[in-house]
Amino acid sequence: MTVPISSDLTPFLYVIVCGCGNAGDIGTLIDAAQKRHWDVGVIATPQGFGFIDAEAIATLTGYPVRSAWHAPGDARSFPPADAIAVAPASFNTVNKWAAGICDTLALSVLCESHGLGTPTAVLPYVNSALAAHPAYRRSLELLRETGVLIGTYEPHRPKAGGGAHRFPWHEALDLLEPRLGRRPVSGSP
Ligand SMILES: Cc1cc2nc3c(=O)[nH]c(=O)nc-3n(C[C@H](O)[C@H](O)[C@H](O)COP(=O)(O)O)c2cc1C
């Protein structure tokens, strides 16, 4: 696929998708972002990749969905990120990110985002049993302290089918837009 070059005037949003029950609805966020004049590139965790239609997303965004690192020497396929939205964010990725674990491309981008100063919003999609775990609460607190913007989705009841219908995809854009600043000079995967 030919990868388009993002215009300097159009902010580039990385959307990081985790292995959550509502990940298949990611087109809602892509569509909302494009309507608000963002270019979008999607990075899925290896688990998240199985929940999405990567071909449809590539058609929608104009960029291949990334899930693994490039081979050394290969060209990078995304421009640097102006902002990052982690949506939906899993319990697993939230905790690993906060702990500085970097064993997926998605986590590597997230762990670097702090040092690069890239505005980052996270919209977790977890049930209330997972959300009650003390490590999760600590992880969110730590991420908040480092400047990560946290979504307001209230965890759904376990085994109740989830709360996909009330997941606030647009909130990622609402949180990030006021933080848009200068395009960082490096950091593309
Ligand atoms: C069908 C299915 C739905 C899942 N839904 C969620 C979910 O909504 N939220 C969540 O935190 N984990 C969910 N999980 C568990 C995650 O996929 C699992 O923790 C995985 O390790 C997450 O990997 P990732 O963080 O690298 O994407 C689900 C798993 C399956 C098989």
Q: Could you describe the 3D structure shown?
A:
- The protein has one domain: 3-Layer(aba) Sandwich (Rossmann fold), CATH 3.40.50.
- 34% of the residues lie in helices and 14% in strands.
- The chain is built from 8 helices and 5 strands, in the order βαβααβααβααβα.
- It has helices at residues 27-35, 46-49, 54-61, 91-99, 105-116, 128-131, 134-145, 170-176, and strands spanning 12-17, 39-44, 83-89, 120-124, 149-150.
- A 5-stranded parallel beta sheet has the order 2-1-3-4-5, with helices on both faces.
- Strand 1, helix 1 (27-35) and strand 2 form a beta-alpha-beta unit.
- The chain is globular, with a radius of gyration of 15 Å.
Q: What are the key terms here?
A:
189 residues; Rossmann fold; five-stranded parallel β-sheet; binds flavin mononucleotide
